[in-house]
Amino acid sequence: MKDFYAQFDFQSNLLFDALTVSEKNKVFTAMEPLFIPKGSRLFYEEGIPTGIFQLKKGKAKKIKRGFSGSEQIFYIYTAGDVLGYHALFGEERYQDSCEALEDLEVSFIPKDVFFALLKSIPTLQQTFIKNIGHEFGVLANIIAVLAQKNQHARLAINLLILDHRFNQQCQDYNGIDLTREDLANIIGTSPESLGRSLKHFREQGIIVVEKRVIYIKNKQALFQLLQMEVDF
Amino acid sequence: MKDFYAQFDFQSNLLFDALTVSEKNKVFTAMEPLFIPKGSRLFYEEGIPTGIFQLKKGKAKKIKRGFSGSEQIFYIYTAGDVLGYHALFGEERYQDSCEALEDLEVSFIPKDVFFALLKSIPTLQQTFIKNIGHEFGVLANIIAVLAQKNQHARLAINLLILDHRFNQQCQDYNGIDLTREDLANIIGTSPESLGRSLKHFREQGIIVVEKRVIYIKNKQALFQLLQMEVDF
DNA sequence: TTTTAAACCTAACATTTGTTATGTTTAAAT
DNA sequence: ATTTAAACATAACAAATGTTAGGTTTAAAA
Asked: Which of A168, A171, B119, B183 has the largest count of CB atoms under 10 Å?
C-alpha cells in the first residue's frame, strides 16, 4: 500500500502549490471574501456555475440527491480545499451540490476573473485538469469500497479517511465531528445500523465517543479490518 | 425523471458529433486500426498513456482493482465509445484498466497526433473536458446507487442501463450477455447471490434467461422496483 | 468427437443489515 | 433558566446478503 490516503483524497488544497510566489499573489488578490452560514449551499445541482471557491475556514459536504429522495454524500471538503471548477471547465451546469456543515469563510473567484487567470498563468489550466483526472480515480475507489466492503469495513475506512482529513492540518487532535445521519450517508447505511457498528468499535477499544465526536484510539485495528498492510 | 439513461451513460460515443464534416475527416484519417483479442487490455492502471481509443466493434470493461484483490467494474464500453483521454489531458498515468470482453476492433490515435488535433480543431478540447465533467456526475450517480439501493434494485437499475447500452444501436434485440461474475462485479455482490436475484426476476416474468443471456420482458416492473416514474 | 475446465444453478445455513419502537441526551429556542 | 425539538443510543425482530457445498450445463482444449 503506497499511499492509502491519497487514493481517497481529492487533494484540491494543493492546486495552487505549483505556482510561483508572484502567480500565487495574482490568484489571491483576485479572491473575494464570502460568508456562508451553516446549512446554506455554495452551489446547487443543476445550477449555473458562477466561479470557484476556496474554503478558508469550516467544512462542507458535496452531495448528490439519489433519484428516490435521499442524499448521498460523496466528499467532505475542509479548510484549504478549492472546489467548483468542474462545471466551469465544461461550460455546463453543476453536477452536484455543496452544503456548509459549519459557518464557512470562503474565498470566491468569479468565473470571468478565473478564466483570465487561466490565460495569464499557463500552468494553471493543466494543474486543474490533472486534478479532475485524479478526482475521477478517487470516485472509482469510493465505488469499489461501497461495492465490495461490508458495513464495518466501510466505517473503518471512512473513519481513517475523515480523521486524516480533519486533523492533518491542525496541531490539536479534534477527532471526527459529524452528525450520525451525515456519517451514515457517507458509508451507505442507516443511522441506527451505523450506531451498531460504532458500538462494536467502542467495545473493542478502537474508538472513544464523547458527545457525538469520535476519537480513534487504535488505527492499526482499523487497518487490519481492511486486510491491508499498515503504513501511516 | 427527465433522462434516466443519460445519468448513467458516459455518452462518449457522441464526442465527435459536434464537429464539421471536414473536422471529422481530419480525426478519422488520423486513426490507426488495432485488434485487441478477448481478455487483453487496452491499457493498465498505473501505465503511461499512449493515445486515445475508439471501439469500432466489441465491448470492454473499465475496472479498478480494489485494494483487497478483487476487481470492481464501474463501466462497460460499447461500439462507438471513445476512451483513454482522461490520463492524457492530465499528463498523468492511467487511473484504471480497460479489458476486452470480446475480440475488439479499435481505432487508435497516438498521443502526439491527438494533441495536434486538439490544436487544429478549437472546439475539440472543450468537448472532451465537458465530457469528463459529465462522467464525473455519472460516477457520483453510481456511488448513490451502490450506497442506497439493495441488491434487487441495483440489479434492476443495471439491467436497464446495460440493456439500453447494448441494444440502442442495433436493429435486433440481443439482450444482455455477460458472465455472472462480471455482472456481480458491477452490482457489488457475489455471483451466488446475484443468481438468487436473477431467479427471483425470472419467477416474476420480468426477465427470460437463455444460456447466460438475459432478456428483459417487463421494463415497467424494473422501473417500479426503483420507485421511479416510468419514461422510456 | 471426446475430454476437461470453467461457468452456472440451487439450496441450506450463518451472518449482516434493515426496520420499528422506546427512552435518553443534547442543542436550540423561548 | 425553561421549554421544545432534534439528535442519539439501544434492543428485538424481520429481511437481505454472504458463504459453503453439491450437482449440472456450457464452452474451450485436445
From this structure: B183
State the pLDDT at residue A231: 39
Residue B230 in any domain: the answer is no
| pLDDT tens-digit map of B157-188 | 999 999 999 998 888 888 999 999 999 999 99
- Supply the angle between the helices B151-167 and B180-187 in degrees, to the nearest 10: 120
| Grid cell in block for residue B77 | 464500453
The pLDDT of A69-80, averaged and rounded, is: 91
**Does a structural domain hold residue A230?**
no
Q: Which domain holds residue A104?
A: 5-144
- Closest nucleotide (C1' vs CA) to B147 is C17
A120-158 confidence digits (pLDDT tens): 998 998 899 889 989 999 999 999 999 999 999 999 999
User: In this structure, what are the phi and psi dihedrals at residue B26, rounded to the nearest 5 degrees?
Assistant: -55, -45
Residue A40 lies in a domain: yes
Nearest nucleotide (CA of A199 to C1') = D9
Closest CA to B39 of B61, B23, B70, B22: B61
Strand C nucleotides with an atom less than 7 Å from a protein beta carbon: 7-12, 16-21, 26-27
Reported in sequence order, the residue ranges of chain A that DSSP labels E, i.e. its strands, are: 32-36, 41-43, 51-57, 60-65, 71-77, 82-83, 97-100, 104-110, 207-210, 213-216
Q: Who's near A221: CB < 8 A, 6+ residues apart?
A: A204, A206
The amino acid that residue A49 corresponds to is: P
Residue where one domain finishes, among candidates A127, A144, A161: A144
Check CB contact of B107 with chain A, cutoff 8 Å. no
A28 and A117 both lie in a single domain: yes
Q: How far apart are CA B76 and CA B195, in angstroms?
A: 20
Strands B207-210 and B97-100: unpaired
Assigned domain for A175 exists: yes
Check residue B69 and give its pLDDT: 63
Number of domain units in chain B? 2
With a cut of 90, say whether residue B70 has pLDDT above it: no
Q: Specify the CATH number for the domain of residue B202.
A: 1.10.10.10
Give the protein-side footprint of strand C (Cβ within 7 Å).
A 150-152, 188-190, 192-193, 196-197, 211-212; B 150, 179-181, 191-192, 195-196, 198-199, 209, 212
Single residue among B126, B144, B162 that ends a domain in this structure: B144
List the helix and strand counts (H, then E) for chain B: 8, 10
The reply to whether A101 touches chain B by the CB within 8 Å rule is: no
Same domain, yes or no, for A109 and A89?
yes
